[in-house]
Amino acid sequence: MLILASASPRRKELLSLLVKEFEVLPADIDETPNISEDAGDYVIRMAQEKAKASALKYQQQAKDNKRAVFIASDTSVVVDGLILGKPASFDEAKVMLRMLSGRSHQVMTSLCLCDLSLQRLATKNVISDVVFRDLSDLEIEQYWQTGEPQDKAGSYAIQGVGSIFVECVSGSYSAVVGLPLFETSQLLAQFGINSLREMSSK
């Protein structure tokens, strides 16, 4: 049994391209970066903590399926080493989008797969470069009013209206959306889950 440790509809949709059946069991964790924490270290730590928290929650629900595998992911938008989280207000979103305007930034999406006992754990950090065109203050305000930026890292969604700001992507598009499909399939295979076999079986 595969368990997705995320409530994200985007990650659920992407994972469903690789695996027919899985459960969703997100767990709340503190997502505050540590002081002076490197962005890459942060996204890996977040994925690990999400996976471990989901496994613990699974155990607390008196489920003891020893074959359960947990998959977690975390996505951060990074500019000059600074991690941009989800905006709490329009003012925060405006600051973030001004930082992204007319330049390149990184999107880091980490993966963590683990078993129920936490004895086996595999991680991966996928880094993609995204280039934004110049944004006007009016465009930033109009974009905020769509409601899309309000729960997105870096205040934009590349799979939504925010795509009109993106000149180009170098790396994994699915990772920028929230789950790198190539790397996910590779890690799933390490845990005995073959995506082609899963999706081709009736």
UniProtKB/TrEMBL annotation:
It catalyses: UTP + H2O = UMP + diphosphate + H(+); dTTP + H2O = dTMP + diphosphate + H(+). It holds the Pfam family Maf. The active site is at D74. It is found in: Cytoplasm. The record marks R10, T75, Q159 as: Important for substrate specificity. InterPro entries: ITPase-like_fam, Maf-like. GO terms for molecular function: nucleoside triphosphate diphosphatase activity. Signal peptide: none annotated. GO terms for biological process: nucleotide metabolic process. GO terms for cellular component: cytoplasm. Its EC number is 3.6.1.9. The keyword Nucleotide-binding does not apply. The keyword Amino-acid biosynthesis does not apply. It comes from the Bacteria. Its cofactor is a divalent metal cation. Keywords: Cytoplasm, Hydrolase, Nucleotide metabolism. NCBIfam families: maf. Nucleoside triphosphate pyrophosphatase that hydrolyzes dTTP and UTP. May have a dual role in cell division arrest and in preventing the incorporation of modified nucleotides into cellular nucleic acids. Belongs to the Maf family. YhdE subfamily. This is dTTP/UTP pyrophosphatase. The lineage of its organism: Bacteria, Pseudomonadati, Pseudomonadota, Gammaproteobacteria, Oceanospirillales.
